[in-house]
């Protein structure tokens, strides 16, 4: 994941932008898959979340529970 392929954004970014590391962690993806999707669809959190929803990939359990207070 050290080498990030450059990409040129063709559309404006919708919503807050993910970093590659944040996107990879949120969906529990391996490095190559996360980088490929990030390059193809850009950093837009809205577009990437829609894409992952269409692929029926839910955010990782850690991401879903990060805002919950500890018991």
Describe the model.
The chain is mainly α and 71 residues long. Helices cover 48% and strands 0% of the residues. It is built from 4 helices and no strands. The chain has helices spanning 20-27, 31-41, 45-54, 61-65. The radius of gyration is 13 Å and the shape is globular. The N and C termini lie far apart (35 Å). 13% of the residues are buried.
Distance between the termini: 35 Å
Structural class: mainly alpha
Taken in chain order, the helices and strands follow as HHHH
Quote the beta fraction. Answer: under 5%
Which residue ranges are poorly predicted, with pLDDT under 50 across at least 5 consecutive positions? none
Q: How helical, in percent, are the residues?
A: 40-55%
- What is the tally of helical segments? 4
Cα-based radius of gyration, to the nearest Å: 13 Å
Mean of all residue-level pLDDT scores? 78
Let me know the number of strands: 0
How would a textbook summarize the main sheet? none
- Shape, per Cα inertia axes: globular
Task: Offer a quick outline of the entry.
The protein contains 4 helices and no strands.
Which descriptors apply to this entry?
71 residues; mainly alpha; 0% strand
Fold blueprint:
Blueprint: H1 20-27, H2 31-41, H3 45-54, H4 61-65
Helix pairs in contact: 1-2
